[in-house]
Amino acid sequence: MDLIEAHGLAITEFDRRVRRVRPEHWALGTPCEKWSVRDLVGHLVQEQLWAPELLAGCTVEQVGDRFDHDNLGSDPLHSWVLAAAAAREAWITPKALQRPVHLSSGKSTAVEYGWQMTTDLAVHSWDLARAVGADERINPGLARAVLEHVSPNAEEWRAAGLFGPAVAVPDAADPQTRLLALTGRTP
User: Does residue 34 come out as left (phi exceeding 0), alpha (psi in the -120 to 50 range) or beta?
Assistant: First the structure.
């Protein structure tokens, strides 16, 4: 599965869960330590808002603190839909994957940035599903593609604080279970 297909599936997976959030769910805790459902969705909205800027060549300094506030407002679903649509449009723009991007960690390729975004969307879709009692199954092809990309970088990402300690699972576990365990979640 290529990045653009994986990214589209990951946005769909997260979108499916956001649409299941009810008013009473926003304050619930999530598998992400210290994050409520609102915090988690806010994190993903903020990431989607950054994507068009970074893919257009802006640096972190140029974007500044533009998105360092509550991006959900009074209608979190609407905020998600708008941010996700803008991000997806930026990703599918011709030659978007050929551009370098400037991240807080330094210069990167758009492809590497895209896999980071896709990973976050896929894994957090499970986190959100777990928090609100929705279907936790991630598209199997997406789980496999993200696992293949994350596996070689897992320790580096863990050292950077992006993943918690890995959870032991049987070698024969399905790709989703292995992905979640690799990223520090107890499936």
Answer: left
Q: How far is CA 33 from CA 69, 77, 184, in A?
A: 20, 22, 11
> Which burial class, exposed, middle or buried, applies to 38 when counting CB atoms under 10 A from its CB (0-12, 13-18, 19+)?
middle
Question: Does the pLDDT of residue 164 top 90, yes or no?
Answer: no
Q: Which amino acid is at 158?
A: R
Measured CA to CA, the distance from residue 60 to residue 44 in angstroms comes to 17
Would you tell me how many other CB atoms lie within 10 Å of the CB of residue 105? 10
Per-residue pLDDT averaged across 107-132, rounded?
97
Identify the burial level of 172 via C-beta atoms within 10 angstroms of its C-beta, where 0-12 means exposed, 13-18 middle and 19 or more buried. Answer: exposed
What is the pTM assigned to this prediction?
0.94
- Would you place residue 63 in the very low, low, confident or very high pLDDT band (cuts 50, 70, 90)? very high
Which of 153 and 175 is assigned the larger pLDDT?
175
Q: Given a cut of 90, is residue 105 above it in pLDDT?
A: no
Cβ 78 vs Cβ 18: under 8 Å: no
Which of 149, 150, 142, 144 lies closest to 125 in space, CA to CA? Answer: 142
